[in-house]
Amino acid sequence: MANSKYEYVRLFEDHRALLPNTWTVIRVDGRGFHKFSARHGFAKPNDARALQLMNAAAVEVVKELPDVVLAYGVSDEFSFVLRRGSGIFERRESKIVTLITSVFTGWYIYLWPSFFPTALSPPLPSFDGRAVSYPSVRNLRDYISWRQVDAHINNLYNTTFWALIQQGGMSAAEAEKELVGTLAKDKHEILWKRFGINYNDENEMCKKGSVVVREYEKPPPPLEEVQGEGEDRMTKGQKERRKKALRKGKVVVRFCDVIKDAFWQERPWILGAAVEEEQEEQEEEKEKE
Ligand code: DGT
Ligand code: MG
Ligand code: MG
Questions:
Q1: Whose CA is nearest to atom 20 of ligand 1?
Q2: For a substitution probing ligand 1, which of 28, 31, 35, 37 has the most ligand atoms within 8 Å of its CB?
Q3: Is 102 helix (H, G, I), strand (E, B) or coil?
C-alpha cells in the first residue's frame, strides 16, 4: 500500500531499547492492593491463596517467554529476569514491559477462580510494570537479595504485628507502638514468649518469597561445552539446539534462599557463562593493579 501523507507521524515514535548486554529485571506490582486485598477478604498477614495465584500467573509468564530465566515474587509483586543476551522484541523496553505486565495480569484474572471461591468484581486487579537493567551478575544477584531481605523484614514485622492484634487483643495503633524500635530478635521473642510461635516454623513461602525457575532431569550443557567461547561464537544451529534444550526444563516454584551462592551453583543454567566471564574479568583487573 502506498504511504499516506499521514505516515510521517511514525517518525515521532520513540523506541527506547534496553541497554545491550545487561540483565534486565521487569517488576510488576499490584495497583492499590492494600484496598484490593481488603475487598476480597485476603487473610492477614498472608493469604496463601493470593500468593499461590501470583505464583501460578508467574509460572505461565515464564513458560510463555523462554528468555525469562528466573522470577521472584513476594506480596503483590513479581520480578522477571531476562537473560543477558536476550534479543526479544529487539529489546524494545515499552514492548517488553507492557507485554510481561499484561500477560501476567491476564493469567492472574483467568486463574482467579481456581484459587478464590468468590468471583472478581470491579475494580479489577491491575499491575504496573517497570524495567531496570543491571550490568553485572553481582548487581543482579544483589537486586534479588534486596527483594528477599525486604520480604523477610516485612514478613517478620507483619507476623508479629498481626499476632499482637489477633492473639494479643491489641488495636492496630497499640501493636504499632509496641513494635517501634524493636529489632528482629525482639520480634522473635515477642512471638515465642507471648504467643508460643516459633518464627522459624512459619510457612516457607511467606518467609522466603517464591522463586520460579526451570529445572532439568538432565541439565543443558554449559555454553563453553557447546562451543569454546560462548554464545557470541555459536552457529545459528547450535544456538537453536541449545535454546530447545533450555526450553525442555520444567517450570517450578521454590521457596528457598536466593542470597547465598548455593542456589545459583546448583542451577548453573540460570546465569550461564556470565559467571565465569565476570570472574575472569575481575581476576584480569586484579592482575593489572
Ligand atoms: P501501589 O502498589 O502503590 O499501587 O499500592 P499498594 O496498596 O499495592 O501497596 P504495596 O504494593 O506497597 O503493598 C502491597 C499491599 O498488598 C499491602 O498493603 C499488603 C497487601 N497484600 C499483599 N499480599 C497480601 C496478603 O497475602 N494478605 C493481605 N491481607 N494483604 C496482602
Ligand atoms: Mg502494590
Ligand atoms: Mg507491592
A1: 34
A2: 37
A3: helix
* Domain interval for residue 67: 14-147+204-276
pTM of the model as a whole? 0.91
For residue range 40-64, list pLDDT tens digits in order. 999 999 999 999 999 999 999 999 9
Query: What is the rounded distance in angstroms from the CA atom of residue 194 to the CA atom of residue 17?
Result: 54
In tens, the pLDDT along 256-287 reads: 999 999 999 999 889 886 777 777 777 788 88
Domain assignment present for residue 166? The answer is no
Distance between CA atoms of residues 256 and 30, nearest Å: 23
In a domain, 158, yes or no: no
Q: Is the CB of 127 under 6 A from ligand 1?
A: no
One-character DSSP codes across 189-257: HHHHHHH---GGGS-HHHHH-EEEEEE-SSPPPPHHHHSTT-GGG--HHHHHHHHHHHHTSEEEEE---
